[in-house]
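Exercise: predict the structure of this protein bound to glutathione.
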Amino acid sequence: MDKRFKHTLVAFKICPYCMKVLTIMCHKNVKFEIKFIEMHNKPDWFTKISPLEKVPILIIGEEVVLFESAAIMEYIDEITPPKLMSDDPIQKALDRAKFEYSNEIIKSLYQFIFCTEQEKFVKLKEWIINRLKQMEEWLKDKKYLNGSEISLVDFNFVPVFVVLNMLKPILPCDMLKDYKRVQNYGDSLTSLQCTKTGRVPDYEFLMIDGIKNQNTVLFRSNPCYFNGPKPSRCCFFSK
Ligand SMILES: N[C@@H](CCC(=O)N[C@@H](CS)C(=O)NCC(=O)O)C(=O)O
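Solution:
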């Protein structure tokens, strides 16, 4: 990596797109600083430099601001050989499409988690299950999406399985039960060291608190789970 450039990642603590970037940065052992900001209280300096006023952004040196998690992930991959993204144009295009596929699942998964209306909750669940069914077909007998070795596209799905894992003890959330390959894939991703440490230690705590405080369908269907002890982990970066 070119040491002339200092990297600063700006993130929200529970942002799944930031989690993707953190996971690949951890996997590739990239040194960086992190600045957490709050979604409902974005500082002026941030809204001035983030084109969509969204996180993650990666500030490189003094001037360059990368935005969009996919672009940031590809950049990190490029500067830290060996690359995890294929050079083959077709494979690359297929992978980029799956970057977007993962974003759609993540968006719906978060809507599902924080949903307060039963009817919408059921529809979202159905939609997510159908996307997981598609993944079951993509995986066939492979450990990762492109074969036995992990590639960049796989890091996009880390937040999906971190969230599904967190909700595993809740019966109505067992969306993976018919999809053995997706289950194994999720287990492979969540057992990676960079997945375990590549997010804030209180991620689960903050998520569970949010689910509870917003009186979501999930909370109403299983209040005991959300009132239980709060998990915490160690993490690879210092805040
Ligand atoms: N496509 C973007 C999505 C980023 C995104 O939606 N970030 C959310 C946080 S999880 C955000 O910054 N939202 C603030 C807002 O919409 O005002 C990416 O992959 O980076």
